[in-house]
C-alpha cells in the first residue's frame, strides 16, 4: 500500500494570569499589573513523513468535530491514501472520527497509551514550549502572535525515526 503517513496531536497554551517566579533586587517590593484574563488557545498539529506540517488553532477545547474536520482537510490536501497516527485522546476515539475509517484510502493507527515519545508532533510541541517559556503574555493576541512566529521556525522531526 502506497500511502502518506501523517501524525496528529493536540496542545493547549494559555495566557499566564500571573508570573510564577521572578527575580527582583533584595529589599524591593515590585508590583506587577495583572490583566485577570484566563484566555487560552488549543492547537491541532500534523506532520508527514515528507516534512509537511499543518497547524490549526481553536479558541475552545478540541472536540471530535474539530478533529474530524482537520482530518478531512488533510485528506483533501493530499488526495491520496493516508495512514493517520493518533493518540488515545477521547476526541480521536469518538465516532465522528472513527467513522471516517470507512472512507476509501484512510486508515487509523492508534498509539499505545501513555507513549507521547512515539508521536513526532510532541517534538514540535516541545520546541513551541521552549520558544514560549520564560515569557509573560498580556493578552491572547500577544500569545497567538508568538505561537505563529514559533510555528514558522520549528524544525520538523523526521517521522521515520519514530517507527
From TrEMBL:
Q: Name one GO molecular function term.
A: nucleic acid binding
Under Pfam families, the record lists: DDE_3 (PF13358)
Gene3D superfamilies xref list: Ribonuclease H-like superfamily/Ribonuclease H
| Domain named Tc1-like transposase DDE: residues | 5-143
Task: Report the InterPro entries cross-referenced here.
Answer: RNaseH-like_sf (IPR012337), RNaseH_sf (IPR036397), Tc1-like_DDE_dom (IPR038717), Transpos_IS630-like (IPR047655)
Q: What is this protein called?
A: Transposase
Organism, as annotated? Natrialba taiwanensis DSM 12281
